[in-house]
Amino acid sequence: MTDRRTLYPPIEPYASGMLDVGDGHSIYWERCGTPGGKPAVFLHGGPGSGISPKQRQQFDPALYDVLLFDQRGCGRSTPFASLENNTTWHLVADIERLRAMVGCDKWLVFGGSWGSTLSLAYAQTHPDRASELVLRGIFLAGQNEADWLYKYGASELYPEAWAEFAGHIPEAERHDLPTAYQKRLTSDDQSVRLAAAKIWSMWEGVTVTLLPDPEMMADFTADDHAVAVARIENHYFMHDCWLEPGQLLRDVRKIRHIPGVIVQGRHDCCTPPAAAWALKQAWPEVALQIIPDGGHLFTEPGITDGLVRASDRFAGKSA
Questions:
Q1: Does 267 lie in the same domain as 224?
Q2: Catalytic site residue from 77, 113, 155, 311
Q3: Which residue of 17, 22, 170, 184 lies most exposed, with the fewest beta carbons within 10 A?
Q4: Same domain (yes/no): 96, 229
Q5: In this prediction, what percent of the chain has a pLDDT beyond 70?
Q6: Of 240, 272, 302, at which residue does a domain stop?
Q7: Catalytic pick from 155, 296, 305, 311?
Q8: Are 131 and 59 contained in the same domain?
Q9: Where does a domain end: 189, 214, 240?
Q10: Contact (Cβ atoms closer than 8 angstroms) between residue 316 and residue 227
């Protein structure tokens, strides 16, 4: 494991701007790498988390022309933390608008966690527009996956954090924590919204880390980040991400011709490997890498190695 690949050096965008996508939303975008290089789009997680500088470093800047953007309500997109006109299918349409803006016929679609969900939804809607798929930490938006996080499962691995998460809600409402949190995250009282958002984001921060990371946890629970992630994530989960039960597995048939790589941490407590395995069974052609010492985050050594090797491979770069 000493020859693992690491992230490419920090890189600044060569272009950035805002795109009016209608419905009162404008989304922030940036392009990194070499103009005219292999086109790619990066889809961040959450939903609600926004993009970060390190995410640019998963691609060789000499070979790629990567577009990254803050999804509706996230990061520098406006209106901030808005739930109006903010669904999976709005985001799929936004990706197509961005592709048209870039002017490419096809592009590599790269997404982790919620970004893997959105990548699959986009590719299945526009199978002629995804040249390849690189996916991390598979989330298929099933009820069992939501229950793992908000009912029973992860609670057994992190009982002390679960006690804080569930304990924020009066006992009479704890039978349905997402609904109880929705009530508080959409409250007219700003202090009620912020308190709920920070606890919600704290719980997510715990489940995504294989080893404690105080700096990451501070970022997760910072006021603006917590509000966007908690409100938008809860909004999506309360609506089953606007997907029919089993839809992403059912419609894999539409994308089986697209070359793909899945990088999945064995010890991912946020999106456990069962979803990645189910996707592999429906899509035998995809390359599934289960990282034996990996969790959820792309910054973990084994996960980084798998993702960088995948992006290099699809740019025609040998190991």
A1: no
A2: 113
A3: 170
A4: no
A5: 99
A6: 240
A7: 296
A8: yes
A9: 240
A10: no
The answer to whether residues 21 and 118 belong to one domain is yes
pLDDT tens-digit readout, 109-127: 999 999 999 999 999 999 9
Q: pLDDT of 83-116, one tens digit each?
A: 999 999 999 999 999 999 999 999 999 999 999 9
For the domain that residue 77 is a member of, what is the CATH number?
3.40.50.1820
Residues of the chain with pLDDT > 90: what percent? 93
Q: Let me know whether 36 and 162 are in one domain.
A: no
Query: Which pLDDT tens digit goes with each residue over 33-73?
Result: 999 999 999 999 999 999 999 999 999 999 999 999 999 99
Residue 56: is it exposed, middle or buried by C-beta count within 10 angstroms (0-12/13-18/19+)?
Answer: buried
Beta strands in the chain (DSSP E): 15-22, 25-33, 38-43, 64-69, 107-112, 130-136, 260-265, 287-291
Which positions ≥6 away from 214 have C-beta within 8 Å?
Answer: none
What is the token pair recorded at 176?
């349905």
**Residue 296 annotated in active site:** yes
Question: Residue 108 sits in which domain range?
Answer: 15-142+242-314
* Known catalytic membership, residue 293: no
Q: Please tell me whether residue 300 adopts helix, strand or coil conformation.
A: coil
Q: Are 41 and 314 in contact (CB under 8 A)?
A: no
Q: Are 179 and 269 in the same domain?
A: no
Residue 4 vs residues 79, 211, 303: alpha-carbon distances, Å: 40, 19, 10
